[in-house]
Amino acid sequence: MKKRVVVTGMGVISPIGNSVEAFKGSIKAGKSGIGKITSFDTTDFDVKIAGEVKDFDPVNWMDKKDARKMARSAQFSVAAAAQALEQAGLLQSVPSGGEEGGVVRRVSSDPLRTGIVLGNGIGGFEIALISTRKLIESGPKRMLPLTIPMMIANEGAGNISMVFGAKGPAFTMVTACASGTDALGQALDLIRSGRCDVMISGGTEACVLNFAVGGFTMLKALSTSHNDDPERASRPFDADRDGFVLGEGAGILILESEEHAKARGAKILVELAGYGCSADAYHITAPDPSGEGGGRAIKLALEDAGMCPEEIQYYNAHGTSTEINDPTETKMIKYAFGDHAYKLKISSTKSMTGHCIAGSGGLEAIATILAIQEGFFPPTINLDNPDPACDLDYVPNTIQYGEINAAASGSLGFGGHNGVVIFKKYE
Questions:
Q1: Is 334 inside any structural domain?
Q2: Torsion angles phi and psi, residue 272, rounded to 5
């Protein structure tokens, strides 16, 4: 029998709130976090909007000296991990060991059996841009001294490990937009295998940068028609959608073996029951239009959880608001769920957050868990003119309520990566 794995903590940094409570409130209200880009001058850009994280001060969650050595994506991950560990009751204060005394917060679980799997797509790309500019304008001796350790993608996981003293495996999952979801699946397997008791897992991204916006625009992937009305730009499954809106943020979960959580009297939020993954082997940016690849990931997640399609009440979709993704994902859901697809409630919270790339999987997993806990179906806002090719129930515009015993969350990434996780009420 597979070892049961449960969720005991969650943390959020997002365009719609920098705590789980704020995030939940925005989702329930159908509040958009998309606005004019403030991080760079968009004068020469066709795209002038994004889902930026607002009012983020890293020193609310970490030491200022540590924060200065981190790229923005790593700061997001440490901040969200701090929230999640706090909720899980897994932080303790210990002497810092420095000459000036003081205390630091460390994991209270066995550090050797506390691991990390973090999804991240691009790493500290703003650091690469700054140092590249300095290199070209002033030469190599003007580059940032910490260019390399701040820009590489594994440093989010590395900094979580260092800040909180987690000494188990510290991995980084890079499967583009599926990274956060795949990270949760790999963390699940590390606990099931007996290698770890506790995992800090999810995804982070901070790429609202001129380079990323320009690059995605050249792919014709971003919405360009709502620069003057940004809150309406992300419109998954709507016939008038014209691309995704770039977002940023981090969603982190604390996973534990059931026996470890029960032994320490932890409050169990939900069970992480299953994970499935697949590759389309089709195209570097487009999903297989048949939906078979993503649908197979859902079927594998159901099989892993020992569940049948009819046991799922809600599906948090990848739902990017692009021309190709939304009808393809509709086929994917039908492929996996059969006739039950028409009874499912489905929604895309990217309609509110934008597409947070590797951060999406963690944030959407948390949205899914909140839906299970409180019995609500998050809305897909801006769904005013449904695409006839997207003919399922996408919870248009307004929150709906109902009991959810089990729910799935799916992510699809460039390169044909598909990942799906299934959560259910803990009983």
A1: yes
A2: -90, 105
**98 against 365, higher pLDDT:** 365
Q: 249-257 and 5-13: which strand pairing?
A: antiparallel
φ, ψ of residue 362 in degrees (nearest 5): -70, -45
Domain end among 263, 297, 329: 263
Rg (CA), the chain: 20
Active-site positions? Answer: 177, 318, 355
Length of the chain: 427
User: Distance (Å, rounded) from C-alpha 268 to C-alpha 8?
Assistant: 5
Residues in contact with 43: Cβ distance below 8 Å, sequence separation at least 6, in sequence order: none
- 131: containing domain: 5-263
DSSP 357: T
Q: Assign 99 a pLDDT band (cuts: 50, 70, 90).
A: low
Q: 263, 297, 317: which is the final residue of a domain?
A: 263
Question: For residue 246, is pLDDT > 80?
Answer: yes
Total domains, the chain: 2
Q: Say if residue 65 is in the same domain as residue 214.
A: yes
Asked whether 230 and 34 are in contact (CB, 8 A), the reply is yes
Q: 88: which residues sit within 8 A by CB, 6+ positions away?
A: 8, 9, 254, 256, 266
User: Is the domain of 252 the same as that of 298?
Assistant: no
Cβ neighbours, 10 Å, residue 218: 10
Give me the mean pLDDT over the 386-410 stretch: 98
Q: What is the 3-state secondary structure (H, E, C) of 393-418?
A: CCCECCCEECCCCEEEEEEEECCCEE
Are 231 and 147 in contact, with CB atoms under 8 Å apart?
Answer: no
Query: How many C-beta neighbours within 10 Å does residue 34 have?
Result: 28
Q: What angle do the packed helices 20-29 and 359-374 form, to 10 degrees? A: 70
- Asked if residue 276 has pLDDT above 90, the reply is yes
Q: Which two tokens stand for residue 159?
A: 């900094």
- Residue 355: pLDDT over 80: yes
β-bridge partners, 5: 257, 272
* pLDDT value at 1 more than 90: no
Instruction: Name the residue among 5, 86, 10 with its Cα closest to residue 254.
Output: 10
| DSSP secondary structure string for all residues of 44-60 | T-S--EEB---S--GGG
**Which of 417, 183, 173 is closest to 281 using CA atoms?**
417
